[in-house]
């Protein structure tokens, strides 16, 4: 067992090492983040002022669609899987993931899926242009021919996610060091366990919905076509039955990361550990019964609207518990604000703002005005960018010294944080205003009254984009060298990952550690 | 030992994933349709109704409004013969929709019904409807498409107007495609 | 740390304090939802503001505690960390209190929702059909029915002309409705899903092909209210505005009479014979309004998506096939709609004549409205 990595590219192609695979997942997701980000910048550049300047509407729609798909399936989800690969075995005292060969496979099919998805941009009729939610019949009878490739790439991404999730569950349930009981596991492990179950439950539903599309397009069925006795609204129900748990898939692991970082920098144990676990589980459960709140304007009986409104409002309770727990953890701590903590604190604040707008959106009659406007765009970017992206960034800064054995440049980290923080708010805060003032989402051009805030938002977007280059530079420099990190890295952090040397050896916990 | 544990859990989770796929493909669509039938979601006015003798509520008049539209590229002329009728609940009523195929080729159409308000759907019974069958019209042919319905006396008193809409879809190609594939199947 | 969060808070506070005031004069810095011109819109606005203020209040408390803690409980100030990590009592409080707040929010929301769903006893029914990329309005019970297209010229969109005040929010024919009448909308779509939205009426409903939805409004004051399609429906989703013109009832009745007379006149006009030049110049207008969105003003189309008109097989082939595809649409490509119902016979004859003679097509032939009428009616 005690051998090191193979030399050359074979190390990466054939690796079954959780650290190597985690690293590949993280770099892949960062590449996708930059690609999806460039598409966002195309969108923001076009929206800088009224009129069509840079792209035509048909290409604009391809950009919004691809931006959404790449960010959700290419950037956020693989980044969390990468962190899970790196950290879960080290957090529970396991030598590796439970199913290392499947681990390799679940990573390596991803680049093919995204190569296929991105290649649709160069096909006749262009890339998918029906939004990342691909509502039928726009995505079936009216779709460009490339939709078939889109469906196939979604299938591959789904297979990758399901394999990754099986691996994570098997690792957590079977590979814990003796003494590591479930209720001793770090919250990152807990949140990922629940996320993995969510993934296994809903990724097949996504596969199902794209399969139905495929059948409708090529095999003459009519799941979603009224002409043959189907129903386009069925598409939305099935899609959001996947889609709502999906948005929690993108936030639960973030809760875990923040719950690891805040106690370290507050020098105080996490407040309400068990209520955190229960809150996560209840959010996961509720995510299955709120899907139609994405469809309030579709025309539902009033009883349906009420049910989905009440259920959605209920989510505020466990989410609130989590926020209160984080603040209580900070309260009367002895805080310092290194880069990971800055990102974690910004996460708590901005995610809460996103939660507030989410609560407003839950109110069905008010949602009739908010639905499909920039208010919704502002809401989910406030949840996803500070929620998923900031927490992933925080996690990278937090564990990077453990991975590389070097401290990152703290000043550059802080510069990155402040640029990203300001950029994010300048980009997305004005979107609340234009949304309330009546600007629908997914439009390449807009009426004059929305011009000023859009201009501000576009400037913010470029600032946010530039901030990520600082991040890239900082990480590359840290990988190459820098001040040696100690084994503990931070001031007495909790967790088994800090008991191994920095950088973490290729194989850790070949013999199980003792767990207090 | 460990390996068999992993194999067990992998098998279970794969079964869960497979089960969810089956659920999405084969359970959700029928479940949704059943749900629509019960709640009137989307105003889908179910299947043929077997008339049961019911008392006619002559005290009450309900306005039944008809609208007709063509889906994209459907060239037929299609409209209700009357815009609305007032009926007593419980009383069977006949009306016709007028259709004409002005094109130079034979065509097959399917009418899709939808009714609002949704609360009224389960109280609107069709004993005969052209929407139960595909409608074929030869080039230039006209037809009167028949509809016979009963408004249930149980219709909530608050509802005094129901609107029945038909959307006509051109399914000529769909039908011929199916016929071709059927022929292929019988050939082989 | 605390200083850094000030800009955000200043922005938030500024929006809260000045938002409604600015929104009222409809300046370019509108930050809030409109109060609207219907009772439902007012109720929705009040509900929106209520929830917003509750969120602000919670935010002030939560962020207040957080910022206080970040200010006071810092290592650099020598603060020693406490070690508490649970308290059942506190945790119960912050589970129960939010639940109560939520119930208090749910009560007015439920009331409003029931009100919005009450479509009974309407004075007037209008059927709204979404098309790629325009709206069609049918006044049920009358013969009045028309399409409502974007009126903003392509040159403004392409930045060749200065933009009007109502850039992208102007249509050739607005929906005209009477004030103080309960109007019921029946909403459906012809092709893909659209959503009909006018913020000032607080009406937003999806238009779904094959199914109808209903909504209603009762407008309190005369005026012009603008909105647009809210559900992604393809290329020109951003270019299908909704304009509602609310007028006093007498004016509405007069308008409806005029429209019915105009419809009769149009069918009269279809029997008249036009000169080539008349057809060509009217055809150019129709082309730019209807066809240019896809086939492009220069007739070059968009390669791979929309075929070129210049030198096309159809526009330079037999005229019957040309009439067929314009009137009945394309069997192969759903993007080419059937325009037979959307355009008058005169417009159809004009645009076909134009397409056969513009963009260097030079066919030299033309077709009369009466021929189109015969084509439509042919046995």
Characterize the structure shown.
The complex is a heterotrimer of chains A (516), B (188) and C (379). Chain A has two domains: 15-250, Cytochrome C Oxidase, Chain A (Up-down Bundle), CATH 1.20.210; 260-508, Cytochrome C Oxidase, Chain A, CATH 1.20.210.10. Helices cover 67% and strands 0% of the residues of chain A. Chain A has helices at residues 9-14, 18-46, 57-92, 100-119, 147-174, 187-218, 232-249, 252-266, 273-286, 302-314, 316-330, 339-362, 364-370, 374-404, 410-436, 451-480. Chain B has helices at 2-39, 172-187, and strands at residues 62-70, 77-80, 84-87, 93-100, 107-116, 124-129, 135-137, 142-151, 161-170. Chain B has a five-stranded mixed sheet, covered by helices on one side. Chain C has 379 residues and is an alpha+beta fold. Chain C has nine helices and ten strands. In chain C, β2 and β3 form a beta hairpin. In chain C, α6 crosses α8 (345-357) and α8 packs across α9 (369-377). Chain C is elongated. Residues 1-26 of chain C have low confidence and may be disordered. Chains A and C meet through α3, α9, α10, α11 and α12 of A and α1, α2, α3, β7 and β9 of C.
């Amino acid at each position: 067992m005690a051998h090191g990595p193979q030399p050359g590219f074979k190390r990466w192609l054939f690796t079954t090492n959780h650290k190597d695979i985690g690293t590949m997942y993280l770099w892949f997701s960062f590449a996708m983040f930059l690609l999806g980000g460039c598409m966002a910048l195309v969108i923001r550049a076009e929206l800088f002022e009224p009129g069509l300047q840079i792209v035509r509407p048909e290409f604009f729609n391809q950009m919004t669609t691809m931006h959404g798909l790449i960010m959700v399936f290419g950037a956020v989800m693989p980044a969390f899987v990468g962190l899970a690969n790196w950290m879960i075995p080290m957090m529970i005292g396991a030598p590796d993931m439970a199913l290392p060969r499947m681990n390799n496979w679940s990573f390596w099919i991803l680049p093919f899926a995204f190569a296929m998805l991105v290649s649709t941009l160069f096909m006749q009729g262009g890339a998918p242009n029906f939004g990342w939610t691909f509502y039928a019949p726009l995505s079936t009878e009216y779709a460009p021919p490339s939709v078939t490739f889109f469906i196939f790439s979604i299938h591959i991404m789904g297979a990758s996610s399901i394999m990754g999730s099986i691996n994570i569950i098997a690792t957590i349930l079977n590979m814990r060091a003796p003494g590591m009981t479930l209720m001793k596991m770090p919250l990152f492990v807990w949140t990922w366990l629940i996320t993995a179950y969510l993934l296994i439950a809903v990724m097949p539903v996504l596969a199902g919905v794209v399969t139905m599309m495929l059948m409708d397009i090529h095999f003459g069925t009519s799941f979603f076509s009224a002409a043959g006795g189907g129903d386009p609204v069925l598409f939305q129900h099935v899609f959001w039955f996947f889609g709502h748990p999906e948005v929690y898939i993108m936030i639960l692991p973030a809760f875990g990361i923040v719950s690891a970082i805040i106690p370290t920098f507050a020098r105080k144990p996490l407040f309400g550990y068990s209520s955190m676990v229960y809150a996560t589980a209840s959010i996961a459960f509720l995510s299955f019964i709120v899907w139609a709140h994405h469809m309030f304007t579709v025309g539902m009986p009033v009883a349906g609207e009420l049910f989905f409104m009440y259920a959605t409002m209920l989510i505020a309770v466990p989410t609130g518990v989590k926020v209160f727990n984080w603040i209580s953890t900070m309260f009367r701590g002895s805080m310092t604000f290194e880069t990971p903590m800055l990102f974690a604190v910004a996460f708590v604040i901005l995610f809460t703002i996103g939660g507030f707008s989410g609560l407003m959106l839950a109110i069905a009659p008010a949602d009739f005005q908010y639905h499909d406007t920039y208010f919704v765009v502002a809401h989910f970017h406030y949840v996803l960018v500070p929620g998923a992206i900031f927490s992933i960034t925080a996690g990278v800064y937090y564990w990077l010294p453990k991975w590389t054995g070097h401290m990152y440049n703290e000043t550059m980290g802080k510069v990155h944080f402040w640029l990203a923080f300001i950029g994010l708010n300048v980009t997305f805060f004005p979107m609340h205003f234009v949304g309330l003032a009546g600007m629908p989402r997914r439009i390449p051009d807009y009426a004059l009254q929305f011009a000023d805030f859009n201009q501000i938002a576009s400037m913010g977007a470029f600032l946010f984009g530039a901030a990520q280059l600082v991040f890239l530079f900082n990480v590359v420099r840290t990988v190459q060298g820098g001040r040696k990190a100690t084994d503990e890295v931070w001031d007495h952090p909790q967790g088994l990952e800090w008991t191994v040397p920095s950088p973490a050896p290729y194989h850790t916990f070949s013999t199980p550690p003792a767990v207090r | 030992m460990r390996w068999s544990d992993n194999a067990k859990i992998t098998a279970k989770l794969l079964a869960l994933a497979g089960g969810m796929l089956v659920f999405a493909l084969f359970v959700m669509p029928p479940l949704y349709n059943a749900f629509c039938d019960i709640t009137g979601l989307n105003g889908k006015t179910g299947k043929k109704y077997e008339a049961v003798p019911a008392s006619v509520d002559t005290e009450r008049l309900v306005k039944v409004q008809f609208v007709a539209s063509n889906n994209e590229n459907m060239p037929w002329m299609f409209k209700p013969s009357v815009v609305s009728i007032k009926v007593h609940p419980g009383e069977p009523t006949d009306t016709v929709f007028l259709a004409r195929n002005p094109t130079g080729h034979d065509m097959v159409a399917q009418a899709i019904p939808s009714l609002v308000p949704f609360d009224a759907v389960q109280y609107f019974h069709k004993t005969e409807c052209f929407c139960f069958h595909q409608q074929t019209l030869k080039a230039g042919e006209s037809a009167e498409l028949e509809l016979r319905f009963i408004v249930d006396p149980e219709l909530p008193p608050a509802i005094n107007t129901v609107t029945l809409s038909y959307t006509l879809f051109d399914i000529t190609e769909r039908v011929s495609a199916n016929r071709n594939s059927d022929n292929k199947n019988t050939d082989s | 740390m605390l200083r850094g969060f000030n800009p955000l808070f200043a922005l938030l506070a500024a929006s809260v304090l000045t938002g409604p005031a600015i929104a009222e004069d409809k300046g370019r810095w509108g930050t809030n939802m409109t109060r609207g011109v219907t009772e439902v819109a007012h109720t929705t606005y009040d509900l929106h503001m209520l929830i917003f203020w509750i969120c602000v209040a919670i935010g002030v408390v939560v962020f207040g505690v957080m910022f206080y803690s970040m200010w006071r409980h810092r290592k650099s100030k020598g603060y020693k960390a406490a070690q508490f990590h649970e308290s059942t009592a506190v945790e119960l409080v912050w589970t129960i209190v939010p639940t109560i707040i939520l119930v208090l929010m749910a009560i007015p929301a439920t009331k409003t929702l029931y009100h919005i769903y009450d479509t009974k006893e309407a004075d007037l029914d209008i059927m709204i059909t979404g098309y790629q990329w325009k709206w069609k309005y049918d006044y049920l019970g009358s013969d009045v029915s028309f399409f409502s297209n974007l009126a903003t010229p392509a040159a403004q969109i392409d930045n060749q002309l200065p933009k009007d005040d109502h850039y992208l929010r102007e249509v050739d024919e607005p929906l005209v409705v009477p004030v103080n009448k309960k109007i019921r909308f029946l909403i459906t779509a012809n092709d893909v899903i659209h959503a009909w939205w006018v913020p000032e009426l607080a009406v937003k409903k999806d238009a779904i092909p094959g199914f109808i939805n209903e909504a209603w409004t009762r407008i309190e004051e005369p005026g012009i209210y603008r909105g647009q399609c809210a559900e992604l429906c393809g290329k020109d989703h951003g270019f299908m505005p909704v304009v509602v013109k609310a007028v006093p009832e007498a004016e509405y009745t007069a308008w409806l009479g005029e429209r019915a007379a105009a419809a009769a006149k149009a069918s009269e006009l279809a029997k008249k014979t036009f000169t080539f030049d008349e057809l060509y110049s009217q055809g150019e207008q129709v082309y730019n309004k209807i066809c240019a969105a896809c086939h492009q003003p220069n007739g070059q189309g968009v390669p791979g998506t929309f075929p070129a008109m210049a030198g096309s097989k159809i526009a330079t082939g037999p005229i019957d096939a040309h009439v067929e595809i314009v009137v009945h649409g394309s069997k192969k490509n759903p993007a080419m709609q059937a325009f037979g119902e959307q355009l008058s016979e005169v417009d159809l004859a004009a645009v076909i004549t134009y397409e056969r003679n513009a963009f260097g097509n030079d066919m030299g032939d033309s077709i009369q409205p009466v021929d189109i009428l015969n084509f439509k009616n042919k046995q």
